[in-house]
Structures are given as C-alpha cells and as structure tokens.
Amino acid sequence: MAKTKNKRTKKRKSSRRKNNPKKNNNKKKSMWKKITTAAVTVAGLDNIAGHDMADSSGAPFADRAKNFINAVVGRTTGFNPIPNTPYEYTQQVSVEGMFNKYTAMGFFSWLYGNLPIKKLPYQPQAKSFGKQMGVIGAITGIFKPQSHNPNSHNHNRSTIKVQHNGQVITTQ
Description:
Blueprint: H1 2-49, H2 61-77, H3 101-113, H4 123-142, E1 159-162, E2 168-171
Antiparallel strand pairs: 1-2
Helix pairs in contact: 1-4, 3-4
C-alpha cells in the first residue's frame, strides 16, 4: 500500500512541475503584449503630434501638454479642445503620410516573421508586432502634418479645410 501512495505523490509533484513553465510562458506573452501595445501607441502618437511638438519646445510642462492635446485632437478631428492657446491645429488628411517610418518598420517586422527559416528567434512575435505597427503607422499617417519640403516629389497638393460654419475650402 505504501508503494502506491508514493507513486501517486510522485505523479502529483511532477504535474505541478509541468505547470510552472506554462505560467512563466504566460508571463512572457503578457509582457510582450504590454511592450508591443506601448510601442505601437507611442508610435501612433508620435506620428500625429511629433512634428507639432516642436512648436512648444522649451515651454513649461503645462504648455507642452496643452500643445500635445490640441495637436492630437486637432489633427484627427479638427477641433481644438483647449482654447486661447497659440497651439491651434486644423485637420489635415493626406494619403502620402501613410508611407512613413512606422509603416516601414511594421512591414519589415512582418516580413521577418514570415521568413521560411525555422530557427530565427521571435518570429511569431515579430509577425504580430509588424501587423500592429503597420496598421497604426498607416492610419495615424493619414493625419500626419504635411511636410512643406521643397525637395518633396509631390508638388501639387490639395488641402481641404472645413471651417466652423460648415464651409469646405480646397486650396492647392
């Protein structure tokens, strides 16, 4: 009778040991998801408001926060939630903004995840990160402020501006 009891306890102990690696693996997945979410969020916000933050460089933190809020909300909706500030932005939609550094980063991460080589590290994670980064880069790039670089290839740009009274003005 004692022998069967020892076998049962050994089985129980070994099954407990098997569960521990799964818990550690879940922690890694959870941490990877947190890091990916943070990176994609920061990239999206930088894509929309990064260029406009130069307007408040050297200003106190409160002014920079006002600038950031007006830049993100103003570029995406056209409404500036914080009035009476020098930081007012209009909504700008440009398709050329979709092709930016974050979209490229997402594409090449996704490409790395799809390589047919089996021994490369972190391929599944790179594939999912690449999808998320590529989509966020493209979506937020639509609202990215247009660069007025004279060396740009697109010289004929149309800007659509919607005024508060509902008028739509197209300029070139």
